[in-house]
Amino acid sequence: MNLPEAAPTRMLLDGQWTGGAGTFPVLNPSTGEPITHVPRASTDDVARAIDAAAQAQAEWAARPPRERAEVLRRAFELTVAHQDELALVMALEMGKTLKDAHSEAAYVGEFFRWFSEEAVRIGGELRRTPSGTNRILTFRKPIGVALLLTPWNFPAAMATRKIAPALAAGCSVVLKPVSDTPLTALLIAKLLQDAGAPPGVVNVLTTDKAGEFVTTALSDARVHKLSFTGSTGVGRTLLKQAADHVLNTSMELGGNGPFIVLEDAELDAAVEGAMLAKPRNGGQACTAANRFLVHQSVADEFAQRLAARMGALRIGPGTDPATELGPMINARAVDGIADKVDRSVAVGARAVIGAARLDRSGFFYPATVLTDVPRDSAMATEEIFGPVAPIIPVKDDEDAVKLANATEFGLTSYVYGSLARGLRVAERLEVGMVGLNRGLVSDPAALRGREGVRTGMRRRLRRHRRLPGNHLRGDRLVV
Ligand code: NAD
């Protein structure tokens, strides 16, 4: 399957499609072969992109919110019209199934639509001082140029989740997608350009030298915001770098999502939910269920039913419409999953299905269900990012809550059980999101307000205003 003709393979810099200093290959994870090559941005390109973004930002911010909203609305309409191309590019370069790719493309459109609606509702606040003699007016203003760094697992949604609120707020952006999946971001840049985003407002640069790129960009004082989605390790490094520049950051990092099945859960529903929370996107989601904490009275039954469903998934290239489980992103990812499975089996976990590498080209790992997984094994403590479901039997609700919270991650969780009992368990979980009798929790509208924090690191949760406040600063005026 070839790249659609409309898909750009050059960078978007100040409204121009441009090359860089050399190129690097983009691999198809279903085959391990290159799809195409894209430019490697030079340090000059980084400076030019920031120049362009800084120049364009003031004029963009000065536009009436309604005009910014209309650009985003057109972007929504274009993503709907080009959903097939967008899905195909994602299936090609990321390996996700066409079904998952179409769902992501639809989800992408929702970010543009939601923030086209939010762009016209940027408010402020009026309060009285405690003495009652003064008034405090808080205005919201765009923060300026935002540097956006995105991961490969949802190459379209992670980009638009950052671009749409930034543009709504009146910011301009320099986006650097991860080198595994640059093509989706370039196609999104084209849709935004076609939607009327002015030159310089959206710049997308590609590189396989992320460290160099980011160090250059962060040392430019005109960058006022760093928005990063990716692994906790890289996030930690970036926070340190950002601190040197006293930079505003948003960090969306890794997860170790517990999927709790209570004694009184409907097992059919729980298995159905697990099929959404686990093998979707090959298990490569920050919101994926990482550990299944199942009441001991139903753990075996749950394991058997989940194994039957996951074992029946048809493995193949993302672009084949019959495929239900695509490849992992790269060889390193397969090695990492195999290593965690092997280490867990070595300390007592039992494989119900899978747990052995596949002998085929491309970066595949089979659907795997493990039971009797030790609580301190790699499976239970590290982010898996693959189609592996480790099942840990728990004694009671108390045991489930304690185990669920025994992690440094606090991103997503799932609870299956009766409403009253499920709610009681849900409110004790130290996480940003809980799916109660639901295996899918993401929704653009959930990004609103102070509670939508998804840094993924419970102990370091920062309660920041997500969106569009994410890209706004508050100016206080005492009158
Ligand atoms: P990653 O951390 O390897 O890369 C993410 C981004 O950081 C990419 O753009 C990459 O080029 C850049 N990067 C990598 N190394 C860098 C360095 N040394 N300096 C500067 N930039 C660097 O993450 P990934 O493997 O692409 O994505 C998977 C991770 O993302 C998982 O941990 C997953 O949980 C997380 N994730 C989180 C969310 C969320 O909303 N919390 C959403 C999706 C993915």
State the main characteristics.
7-stranded mixed sheet, alpha/beta, binds nicotinamide-adenine-dinucleotide, disordered C terminus, 479 residues, 5-stranded parallel sheet
- Kindly report how far apart the N and C termini lie: 63 Å
Low-confidence stretches: 448-470, 473-479
Overall morphology: globular
Determine Rg (CA atoms, Å). Answer: 23 Å
Largest sheet: 7 strands, mixed
Strand content: 15-25%
Write down the overall mean pLDDT.
92
Structural class, by secondary structure, is: alpha/beta
Strand order of the largest sheet: 14-15-16-13-12-17-18
Please count the helical segments. 14
Name the hetero compounds present. Answer: nicotinamide-adenine-dinucleotide
| Number of extended strands | 19
Topology at a glance:
Elements: E1 11-13, E2 16-18, E3 23-28, E4 33-39, H1 43-62, H2 65-81, H3 83-94, H4 98-118, E5 125-128, E6 135-142, E7 145-150, H5 157-169, E8 172-177, H6 182-195, E9 202-204, H7 210-218, E10 223-229, H8 232-244, E11 248-252, E12 257-261, H9 267-277, E13 289-295, H10 299-311, H11 331-346, E14 350-353, E15 368-371, H12 378-381, E16 388-394, H13 397-405, E17 412-416, H14 419-426, E18 433-436, E19 472-478
The chain binds nicotinamide-adenine-dinucleotide.
Describe this structure in words.
The chain is of the alpha/beta class and 479 residues long. It contains 14 helices and 19 strands. The chain has helices spanning 43-62, 65-81, 83-94, 98-118, 157-169, 182-195, 210-218, 232-244, 267-277, 299-311, 331-346, 378-381, 397-405, 419-426, and strands at residues 11-13, 16-18, 23-28, 33-39, 125-128, 135-142, 145-150, 172-177, 202-204, 223-229, 248-252, 257-261, 289-295, 350-353, 368-371, 388-394, 412-416, 433-436, 472-478. The N and C termini lie far apart (63 Å). Bound molecules: nicotinamide-adenine-dinucleotide. Nicotinamide-adenine-dinucleotide is lined by residues 149-154, 158, 176, 178, 210-211, 214, 229-231, 234, 237-238, 252-255, 286, 383, 411, 454, 456.
